[in-house]
Amino acid sequence: MTCGNLLHKRTASIVHLMFFLIPVRRQGLHRIDEDVNDNIPEGFERNPPFIFFQSRSSHRWKSWIQTDERLFPPVVMTASHSDSLVVLFGATAGAYGAKLGSDERELILLVWQVVDLPSKKVGTLHKSLVKADNLELSDQCREVSGLTPEGLGKAEPLDRVLQQFIQLVSSDLKVFGRNSYTLCCDGQLLIRQVLHPETSKKNFLLSDCFYSFYDLRKEFHTCYPSSAAVKDLTTKSMAEYLGLGTDEAEEDFGVWQVKTMVAIIFTMLSENCDHIFTDPETVKYKYETGPCSKSETVDSETVIRARGLPWQSSDQDIARFFKGLNIAKGGVALCLNAQGRRNGEALVRFVSSEQRDLALERHKHHMGSRYIEVYKATGEEFLKIAGGTSNEVAQFLSKENQVIIRMRGLPFTATQEDVLGFLGPECPVTGGKEGLLFVKYPDGRPTGDAFVLFSCEEYAQNALKKHKEILGKRYIELFRSTAAEVQQVLNRYMSTPLIPTLPAPIIPVIPPPYTIATGSIRDCVRLRGLPYTAGIDDILDFMGDATADIKPHGVHMVLNQQGRPSGDAFIQMKSADKAFIVAQKCHKKMMKDRYVEVFQCSGEEMNFVLMGGTLNRSGLSPPPCLSPPAYAAFQTAAVIPAEAALYQPQALLPTARTPQASAAAPPAVTYYPAQAAQLYMNYTAYYPSPPVSPTTVGYIAAPPGAVAAAATATHTPLLPQPGALVRMQGLPYNTGMKEILSFFQGYQLHADSILMLYNFSGQPSGDALVTFPSLDLAKKAVAEKNGQLLGGCCVELFLV
Asked: Which residues form a coiled coil (predicted)?
């Protein structure tokens, strides 16, 4: 049957689209069938063009009107890309229109109809409700669709509805003798922002037909260039442009949209326009890895920054988060911190600005239980992270469609044969030794890292099962990696400063005015199992009224070797009774999404843990490599380790430098022996609250060779300086004062405001402390500069 101009209303001739509904066995699914020529009332022609309608509530024909060929010229078909189109419309339980899919709400409705292009006929119109996991509907959804949770509760889930979709489309195609079709939708959102993300989260595969579709808005604009911009077009505006009827009130929700899209298509195919559907939109089946050269030109309108990623997420996980959008080859670049570990951020490059704009709509969508922030980024930032120039790296990454695994913690003496033997025959490396890439320092020394190529997912999974197995005398970490991470790690380790950074002036360490207790009185509590994002304020809120009983500077966060929160904290209370009450009241109380264990302990036990020991049910275990007698020989409560400042800034117990304190300080400065200090600070670090400015505390920011000289030197006390302190983390190892001053240009800083930190070997640690003239300026700097690139590295800023 020929389909003329649908829903067209004119004064001289009114045309109704006549269908009748036949309920199908599955609840929520309806067929709307137009093959009713045998039931045409007497006196009407059986030859097309006719359009018929029958209401769902009655079997009486409402009206019969023959179409006027003057209003609807005969359709002239030409060759097209596909034999048939399937016009598809969908709605979710949340936002509608331009915001469809932006709120992660589930699909609740699908309406579709086959359009056979060669015969100029339409098939059965189907409408199917979809049972969502969450049946709560937004106000906009209720108002626009008229659907209710009760009705949706009786429908089939999405996977069953999609199976029915494939079966019914195939059945309709057989009627026309066709076997190929392409979807046609009003815009990109239904396919890219709803169907692909939702099915990916629910772990079932979409049929191949959902990876290719026509965007009716783009096709319309191609056919009618003088119409509105593609982004401003809607089904209603396209119908109005063509003079078609736009009264949605006469039809069920979704039915009007599909009928109108069919009418638009047939008008576009008429001899007046003679449009040909030849260039469908495509959705990539999978993300393709590949290298990126620094000489490439990357359009800033195609790049985003994703923040808040789980540290173990891979490029494939990120590609899955953006499922439905086309990421450029090698377009996922995971950002690393100064220690070469992932910092929870990634730069993603898409194939076009249109895809990038759709990606921005996924701001605060979820990856597992975490929401991911999505922001605009620049092509320059992407190249600094993902770009590389090393021929060795380019050759390593030249093999396409490989799975990359990163190995960390290798013995420095490990050879290629050792690594291949460790992996074994169950996970063969692509190309043998050519599939291994050891990461080295500029002088050729190994870093303990390596990258390995595997030809398939199975081999990579076998390799990952060896995570934390032993090679030599060390356990090896294995995890997924990316081409961009290979480039970034090599760039970081191979970069060396042309002019070594000069050490900062040595600042003496003076005895602190407050100390960590070492007695056996159980006036402290230990908090275990804290969320890693918990700060001092969170702990104080957790303590409630008991915060009034905390000693000044009595909250101590325990950090791990990387300077990150370990999940533990110690609190000094004013008395043992207060500590007992807190332990009883707060034990297993919830903080955020985790319950926290609270135990009463003594100052001596707390001191042992803070300096690297462990506290367990069997008693105290001293810090590794240090016997209990030697450990007890040092009066840790009286002084601060001289080399502590060479570690993370939080790893210090800073002392506010006041004129009174300076005057009371003894002329001789006491230090730990260098070896003992290293043993203490290499394992567990701590910091008190509140932290203070680096220019007013006893930070030592010099290589170890300067410590001995400092021990015999006399120092002029420093007066406190006003302002606020910001910690920089993730700096390139070749960063100097000049680069930091340039980074903070316009913030009224000078060289004396910056304190560079070094590790125990005298090398830059990748951290720096910066004192700003005022708290407002410091906050502004953190807000504007956090996450920006400095020398190819993503720099993190924190108010201290």
From this structure: none
